[in-house]
Design goal:
Structural class: mainly beta
Largest sheet: 6 strands, mixed
Distance between the termini: 84 Å
Number of helices: 1
CATH architecture of the largest domain: Sandwich
Shape: elongated
Radius of gyration: 30 Å
Order of helices and strands: HEEEEEEEEEEEEEEEEEEEEEEEEE
Helix content: under 10%
Strand content: over 45%
CATH topology of the largest domain: Immunoglobulin-like
Length: about 350
């Protein structure tokens, strides 16, 4: 075990020095005058019954300006995060740690310009257990007249901004997977978008689509955390269904394309060119400002076309389920007299 730790110690120290050299604007180097510091020990509070909250780092003397950025933790599977450092005098420093959800050994490395630490790191055992989080509330916007576009999740516990959208699960209200037919012909009830932390344990989760009205079962699957309750249910209101029936371009082999024409089954309130994405390929096409002609019919100017070819056009508008989401169309570039070489 000790031989493995020794190998890891060399690797961790070498990696730490490399990262410091890459990230330090002052070009950190071991060359130059240094103060020798003995890194005597690193100890942790806590036990099998009590989570570690603090490490005590002991050196043979004071280290001027020692800060959290000078300390690097290799945490393994413990989840340990350092959040503050407090000098106690006589070369002793308390390092506040949190989020420990497993018992295990971590390596504490200290590296500061102008100081040479011996040894460069110390190993210490920290104690942790599954972190309890109370899930207080799940709400969604929308009503019978307005589609649901956002979910708000509120927790009471040490979760902060470390939750990700990938750790949030969606099931139907009856607990079945949202993408399973279950013999009913139903489709995915909702698709996740971006998760935003608002502070005070509150998150907003945007939705990319809600295809049908109904209850959505929302759960959290985050390693090292235990949520109570494990899931909650919220009622969703569907996005307006729009059929995208046609996409066409003017132009020909003798006339450069100048616009795209869209036909939908109904108006899309507030649709702008910002809601339309064009993959122009090698054509060079650039979109202009969208304008509506009549109900469900829109035109989008194009310019800067330098080559004929197929382009892909996709549309996303919050509150609308547009089917299909993407179409392809051929556009044209016609050479003019000024484009042709003059041959004498």
């Amino acid at each position: 075990m000790k031989s493995i730790q020794n190998i890891l110690s060399v690797f961790i120290w070498s990696t730490t020095l490399f990262l410091m050299g890459c990230n330090n604007d002052d070009n950190y180097s071991l060359i130059g005058p240094t103060t020798d510091i003995v890194f005597d020990s690193a100890t942790a509070n806590g036990s099998d019954q009590e989570r570690t909250t603090s490490l005590t780092l002991t050196f043979d003397q004071e280290i001027e300006g020692l800060s959290l950025s000078d300390i690097f933790l290799t945490t393994g599977q413990t989840g340990t995060i350092a959040s503050g450092i407090t000098p106690q005098g006589g070369g002793i420093y308390d390092l506040t740690v949190r989020r420990i959800y497993n018992i295990g050994e971590i390596a504490v490395t200290v590296a500061k310009e102008g100081y040479l630490f011996t040894p460069p790191l110390q190993w210490v055992t920290v104690y942790g257990s599954t972190i309890p989080v109370q899930w207080e509330e799940l709400t969604g916007n929308g009503s019978s007249d307005e589609p649901t576009t956002m979910l708000t999740l509120t927790f009471n516990g040490d979760i902060a901004e470390e939750l990700s959208a990938e750790e949030i699960t969606f099931k139907k209200g009856d607990g079945t997977d949202t993408d399973e037919d279950q013999g009913t012909g139903s489709t995915t009830i909702a698709e996740k978008g971006e998760l935003t932390y608002r502070g005070n344990g509150t998150f907003d989760l945007s939705l990319l689509n809600v295809t049908e009205e109904g209850d959505l079962n929302v759960g959290i699957e985050k390693y090292g955390y235990e949520f109570t309750p494990a899931s909650k249910t919220v009622h969703l209101y569907p996005w307006t269904k729009i059929e995208w029936s046609s996409l066409s371009a003017n132009g020909s082999e003798t006339e450069t394309t100048t616009k795209l024409s869209f036909i939908f089954s109904a108006n899309i309130d507030g649709l702008t060119s910002e809601d339309i994405t064009i993959d122009a390929g090698k054509t060079g096409a650039v979109k202009g400002e969208l304008k509506q002609l009549i109900t469900g019919v829109y035109e989008l100017p194009l310019d800067s076309i330098t080559q004929s070819g197929a382009i892909s056009v996709s549309i996303f508008k919050t509150g609308y389920a547009i089917n299909p989401e993407e179409k392809d169309v051929d556009i044209f570039y016609a050479e003019t007299d000024t484009d042709e070489e003059v041959v004498e």
